[in-house]
Amino acid sequence: MSLRDRFLWLLWALSVALCSWQVSRSSVVTDVSSFLPGPANPTQQLMLGQLRDGLSTRILLVGLRLEPGAQQGRPTPEQTRHLVDASQALRERLAAEPAFAWVSNGNMDALEPERERLFAARYLLANGTTQQQFSQEGLNRAFAQLEATLASARGAMVRPIATADPTLAALELLEKASRQVVPQGETGVWLTDDGRVALLLMETRARGHEIDRLRETLQLARGHAAQVLQAWPGGIGTPVVDLAGAAYFNVMAHDAIGTDAHQLALLALLLVAALLLWALRSPRFLILAIVPVATGALAGFAAVGWTYGTIHRITLAFGVTLIGEAVDYAIYSFVQRDGAQAPGRAFWRTIYLAALTSLIGFAAMYFSGFAGLQQLGLFSMAGLVAAVLCTRWLLPGLYAHQAAAAGPSRRFAWLPVLSRRMRIGRWPVALAALVFAVLLVQGQDTLWLDRLDALSASSPEEDQRDLRYRTQAGVPELRTMVAVRGASLQEALQRTEASTQVLDRLVREGTLGGYDSPTDLLPSAAVQQARQAALPAADVLRARVLEATRGSRFQAQAFEPFLADVAATRDGAPIGLAHYAGTVLGAWLQAQIVQSPDGVTVLVLLRGAPPSERLRPLLQAAALPGLSLIDLQGDVQQLVADYRQRAMQAALLGTGAIFLVLLLQLRRPRAVASMVATITATLALTCGVLWLLHGQLTVFHLVSLLLVVGVVSNYTLFFSTLPGEPGARQRASLSVLLAASSTFFAFATLAFSSTPVLGMIGQTVAIGAAAGLLVSMVFSADDDPATSA
Amino acid sequence: MTRLYIFVLMAVLGLLACALPPAHAQSQPAAQASNDERLRRILLAVAARPLDAAPFLERRISPLYASPLELRGTLSFKPPGTIEKRTTSPIREVLTITAETLTIDPGAGAAPTVVRMDAQGQLSAYVLGLRAILNGDDKLLRQVFDVQLSGSFDAWRLQLLPRGAQPRRGIRKIEVSGTGAQLRQIDTTELNGDQIEMAISAR
């Protein structure tokens, strides 16, 4: 080993140590929302916050499901009884766990505190608390109505509250609250319509992005469920435990990235290693090739960790792809050696040019603005540079000790023949590319799928079950909501009350199905004070009750509790958030009233909302201060669409830059024109095949196309600069073939990832590499001196 | 309104269901066997003659009322489980309870309120008890209530105390009496002090 080599290896060892140190101190993050573009305005910020760890991400559903065994249809009464018992037992256990803010299984008894709080504050909360209602006339009407109701079978329903609440103010509240805390009747616990699943709904204290805490919480729920089910009698089919809700899906998506990526990386490594071993018959090369691959990956992770402080798990998994990319340069340099000679200056120039074009592709990813893709871009750029440097300065010294294996050249003697023969594919390939290009341009309006749930890792069955469970447990649709901002809680509440008047009008007009506003449970102090003012003084009310019950069957003195409660409300203080502390209602309120340093945002949940493009102008027309409409799916869709357009511009710029660099470096316009044609045809073919497979493309396909451009420009570069000498020529062809194959195998492995983002990237690049190789070979054939001579 | 009523109904039924029986002194084991036998005989006789539009007079005595509220109508039972209470005065209304549903039909074209029931439902204490008597099912009756039988076959009296945990509201006790196969009187005392006395006449 020469002195220079020793120095280089020392430098390498130092760099590796430095990178390892950087990687070891970077933490790994997992939430998908950090893969999104940065928020552009407060509404988007709020939306992303909600998406990241809002209430919707903390909802967990546990289902105890009887599997349809021998008997189909409704379960036996015995099974139902055990299901109800298990549901109660599980609720008690989970409610005692601090990991849950609240747990409900629909059991009304468990909701006694909620009922008590509502009942105590009924005159502050009810719209019916008006001077009119408490006037002599209003009370006369109320007592007459009460008498009739008590005579009916329905009387049993109001009898418990009749003496304290003869105007039945509580009914209005209970109905509103019942939307938040849907009661389930007959068995006292939530069962699905078919009676086979007992449902429990809970809110985790762990937030959406705290995956490890969430996972522990899920295990806790599963553990308790398993223990409860141990008491299940044999012979009647023990239920299975289903989990659903965002809290569960977040963990699942995360774990899918984790487990999947390790296996796929290993598989990709094995596939590429087997391919190279078979083609080159050189175990030594395999070991050497690991140097640029591993160094590149390490440098990539270190660069990301240094820049962002954290590494996204998707980026880690993406490391797989670098196997396919970094090994290319090792292949080129190993295969294109002439005898024991290291490749010459011209070869390295081509390598640098190739690396530069790839870098430009990755740079386009970096400048995309999508936080996650920036990481991938940076990772790839750093990895690529490190891999190329290793290949250039470290590997040749090691090859030198090994005589070139003549094997590959002889075994691949058919390659030049194949190259020539591929000319016949020229027209079909050109035609196919043209047809796809025309189709894609024509269908560009519907080509793009901008929904973020395309990234969801759950299976359709699970999604369906989730929807069914949430519907049956009455979890409101958390997709569309109205956000009302104010500088203080009171201002936000008052503005919300102003907004609900507009929403009420929309409900009356039938535009909106309904809404759940926190002001139903916590009216602004102003509204509460107005209601207090509407209550008559104690002696006045007493006289009116006496008058209203005169001539009826009622005894006036039975209604002392009513008089006492009204007096207490009239003279008491307005209620605040603390009134609901420790109840399910309190938990909902906390989720719906978002406090931030610069103010308070109240979220009004909507039911049966029209599409936001219709609703938004209606709300804007009302010109309500502080109000905005949040459409989690729609806004994200818009955000993704905006981003996609930016990514498209970046891609076009990147591709243009690649062509420009090639033109400046090669100074052979004809060759560059043929390379441009090759790359364009490759992109058309790749998009076309993806389009045939999926019907729609996502932004991740688009960005992966940048990778394709980077990779394929290398193939076409090598094919258009083939040396004239037949041996060198064959070696060059072979090196590209192997590089393309290893890229293909690495990315094709990634295509099987259950993480949709990785799957999309894998599929796109695998198809692109195959298409690129095909097109490069087909179009480079005419430069072959054997045929043109 | 229907949804609202269902909600409140459920709230109240939830409370009814908590009705718990305080632990009660058991009858002497020796006397118990013959008591069981007598109860079975009486219930079988009652079940053999199902109520068929039997007129009833229901008096509700409550701290709410200066004078008792009186309701009139007819009561029917269709085995195995349908109870129909048809009120004609002072309001018109049909209450039908089957194994699956509870329906309150105010008639006059107004929409009835329908609530699904379940054999294990929280309403069960009262309805199950009544149904057990009408069906002659002494086993079920004992499952839901502590049963005390007094009197003879020709003038019997059952005191039913709900089993379970101590309730805050709901039923304190039910007293059912009859002469032979004829159910005569169902008196319910609620924990809030209300009493409902239902007298049933033979047709």
Q: Mind sketching the topology for me?
A:
The complex is a heterodimer of chains A (789) and B (203).
Chain A lengths: L2 H22 L2 E3 L12 H12 L1 H4 E7 L11 H19 L4 E5 L7 H9 L1 H4 L10 H16 L3 H4 L10 H12 L16 E8 L6 H19 L10 E5 L1 H35 L2 H26 L1 E3 H23 L9 H22 L4 H23 L1 H5 L7 H5 L2 H8 L4 H17 L1 H4 L12 H13 L7 E7 L2 H21 L4 E3 L8 H10 L3 H12 L10 H12 L12 H9 E4 L2 E9 L4 H10 L5 E5 H35 L2 H26 L4 H22 L5 H25 L5 H25 L4 H4 L1
Parallel strand pairs in A: 1-6
Antiparallel strand pairs in A: 2-4, 2-5, 3-4, 7-10, 7-11, 8-10, 9-10
Chain B lengths: L1 H16 L11 H20 L5 E8 L7 E10 L3 E8 L3 E5 L3 E5 L7 E4 L7 H12 L2 H7 E8 L2 E8 L8 E9 L2 E9 L4 E6 L3
Antiparallel strand pairs in B: 1-2, 1-11, 2-3, 3-4, 4-5, 5-6, 7-8, 8-9, 9-10, 10-11
Helix pairs in contact in B: 3-4
Care to describe what's here?
The complex is a heterodimer of chains A (789) and B (203). With 789 residues, chain A is α+β, with helices and mostly antiparallel strands. Chain A contains 33 helices and eleven strands. In chain A, the strands form three sheets. In chain A, strands 7, 8, 9, 10 and 11 form a five-stranded antiparallel sheet that branches. A four-stranded antiparallel sheet of chain A has the order 3-4-2-5, with helices on both faces. In chain A, a hairpin with a 2-residue loop joins β9 and β10. In chain A, α13 runs parallel beside α15. Chain B is α+β, with helices and mostly antiparallel strands. Chain B has one domain: outer membrane lipoprotein receptor (LolB), chain A, CATH 2.50.20.10. In chain B, 27% of the residues lie in helices and 39% in strands. Chain B contains four helices and eleven strands; from the N terminus they run ααββββββααβββββ. An eleven-stranded antiparallel sheet of chain B has the order 6-5-4-3-2-1-11-10-9-8-7. In chain B, β3 and β4 form a beta hairpin. Chain B starts with a helix and ends with a strand. The N terminus of chain B is likely disordered.
